[in-house]
Design a protein that fits this description.
With about 120 residues, this protein is of the alpha+beta class. It has one domain (about 1-120). It is built from 5 helices and 7 strands, in the order E-E-H-H-H-E-E-E-E-H-H-E. The strands form 3 sheets. Strands 1-2-7 form a 3-stranded antiparallel sheet. A hairpin with a 6-residue loop joins strand 1 and strand 2. Helix 2 (about 35-45) crosses helix 3. The protein binds iron/sulfur cluster.
Length: about 120
């Protein structure tokens, strides 16, 4: 179980085995750092420009992954049919740091639990 200073909750990653990618489904943005763009392009063995053209969009001047609509569900472009991340080894920093995001820091445990079954009480 992982915990992070200043957060009202802990994270139990064993929940990921059965959760079916709840954090990768639905409306929202996965923003990419320059390092993410380099790493993912190399991982996919394509040029950076091709990666940007095929898999990303601009949102308020920032680069974010595109979504797909599959069976009426909005999903990250890299979530596969088995609810696995196709780029897991090089997933973006934003994904790696979930659920310890500044935007979730002051939210109650009950509130953030709705986002992810791995978010649990630390006690
Ligand atoms: S990049 Fe991977 S971990 Fe991040 S939202 Fe997409 S499928 Fe999920």
């Amino acid at each position: 179980m992982s915990k992070n200073e200043g957060f009202n909750f802990c994270f139990d990653k064993s929940a990921c085995k059965t959760c079916k990618g709840k954090c990768c489904i639905g409306e929202g943005y996965v923003f990419l750092t320059k390092g993410d763009i380099e790493d993912i392009s190399k991982f996919l063995t394509i040029e950076k420009e091709a990666f940007l053209r095929l898999y990303t969009r601009k949102v308020n001047g920032k680069t974010a992954l595109i979504d797909l609509v599959v069976k009426n569900e909005i999903r990250c472009v890299f979530l596969d049919d088995n609810y696995r991340c196709e780029i897991y080894a090089k997933r973006p920093k934003q994904c790696k740091s979930f659920p310890f995001w500044e935007s979730l820091k002051n939210r109650s445990l009950d509130d953030v639990r709705k986002l992810c079954p791995g978010i649990v009480s630390c006690s």
